[in-house]
Design brief:
Elements: E1 2-6, E2 16-22, E3 27-32, H1 35-38, E4 55-57, E5 64-68, E6 98-106, E7 109-117, H2 127-171, H3 176-196, H4 214-225, H5 234-271
Parallel strand pairs: 3-4
Antiparallel strand pairs: 1-5, 2-3, 2-6, 6-7
Helix pairs in contact: 2-3, 2-4, 2-5, 3-5, 4-5
Length: about 290
C-alpha cells in the first residue's frame, strides 16, 4: 500500500506515474493516469525481460493524501481474446518477500522510496523456497505467453489469407492455384492451432465436452504451484517440462509452415500480380 500527498489538484495535462521496481531498478509494474499509455506495453522496455512489460491505470487522484494498493504481482501472461480456460490462470506471480522500490513521477519530477514485502511470520517457508516458487511461476507465465503468441500469429495469418482470397473472389480476380494454395495453408495452420488451443470451446461449459489443450494445461499449473507458500514439487517441474516439450513439437511444425509454405504462398501472390487494392462491385438493390 502506497500513500502519497499532492499539494495541488492535477489538471488534464498533468502526467502522473507510479513505478514499482526491484532493488536494482528493474521495473515490475507501472501505473499512470494516462489511459492511452496504460493500454499499451511500455516501448522503453523492449530490450528487457518479459517480466517488465505493462502499464496499469491510477484513478481518482485528488489533492491531498492519496492511497494506491499494488497487488504485488508481476504482469500477467499474454492472453488469446475469447479463449475459454478450465482451471487455468494468466495471472502474474507475486513478488517474493524482500526489498523493493517505488518511484512517483509528476510532470517530470520524481521521488523514490524503498519499501519491504514481509512474509507471514506464521509460516516457515524460506527465502530460497519463495524464490524457487516465483521462478517456476514466472516460467509457467512465460510459457503461457509463448504458446498464446503462437496461436495469435496463426490466427493473424489465417485472417489475412481469408481476407485476400475473399477479396479475390468478390472482385472477380480468378486464380485457382492461388486460392487452393491459400486453403491448404490455412488447413496446415489450423491443424497446428488445434493442438495448441481448444478452438471448439466458446462457453464455460464447453470444456466438459471438449478436452483442454496444451495452452490450458500449462496455465493450469499456476494454481497448483501457487496453492501454498512452499517450494514447488518435483512433479510440477516435470509436468511443465513434458508440456513444453509437446508444445515445441508443434512450434517446429509451425516454423516449417511459415518458412516453406507461407513463403511459397507469398511468392505465388507476387507472381500472380494480385492488386494491392481490389475493387469489389457493390450490391445494389432496386426498389420498385
Amino acid at each position: 500500500m502506497t500513500f502519497y500527498y499532492l499539494k495541488e489538484e492535477l489538471d488534464k495535462d498533468s502526467e502522473f506515474k507510479l513505478e514499482f521496481m526491484e532493488t536494482d531498478g528493474d521495473l515490475i509494474r507501472a501505473f499512470t493516469n494516462k489511459k492511452e499509455t496504460s493500454d499499451v506495453e511500455n516501448p522503453g522496455l523492449q530490450g528487457q525481460t518479459q517480466k517488465n512489460a505493462d502499464y496499469g491505470t491510477v484513478e481518482n487522484i485528488e489533492k491531498g493524501m492519496n492511497r494506491f494498493v499494488w497487488d504485488m504481482r508481476y504482469p500477467d501472461a499474454k492472453k488469446v481474446p475469447g479463449a475459454v480456460m478450465w482451471g487455468g490462470s494468466h495471472i502474474g506471480p507475486k513478488a517474493v518477500p524482500g526489498e523493493y522500490k517505488v518511484k512517483m513521477t509528476l510532470n517530470g519530477k520524481s521521488q523514490t522510496k524503498t519499501f519491504y514485502i514481509i512474509k507471514d511470520p506464521r509460516i516457515k517457508t524460506t527465502q530460497s523456497d519463495f524464490q524457487d516458487q516465483f521462478d517456476l511461476l514466472m516460467d509457467i507465465r512465460n510459457r503461457t505467453s509463448e504458446i498464446n503468441e503462437k496461436v495469435l500469429t496463426i490466427r493473424s495469418i489465417k485472417k489475412q489469407i481469408s481476407t485476400l482470397t475473399d477479396l479475390m473472389k468478390d472482385s472477380g480476380f480468378k486464380n485457382d492455384d492461388l486460392t487452393n494454395a491459400g486453403e491448404k495453408l490455412v488447413k496446415s495452420l489450423s491443424t497446428i492451432e488445434e493442438e495448441l488451443i481448444q478452438v471448439k470451446s466458446k462457453s464455460r461449459q464447453d470444456p466438459l465436452n471438449y478436452p483442454i489443450k496444451l495452452d490450458n494445461k500449462i496455465a493450469a499449473l499456476v494454481r497448483v504451484v501457487s496453492s501454498i507458500d512452499a517450494k514447488p514439487t518435483e512433479q510440477s517441474y516435470d509436468v511443465l517440462n513434458q508440456l513444453v516439450n509437446k508444445a515445441q513439437v508443434h512450434y517446429k511444425k509451425l516454423d516449417k509452415v511459415l518458412t516453406d509454405d507461407l513463403f511459397k504462398f507469398n511468392n505465388m501472390v507476387s507472381d500472380a500480380a494480385v492488386p494491392a487494392v481490389m475493387i469489389v462491385p457493390s450490391k445494389m438493390s432496386i426498389e420498385r
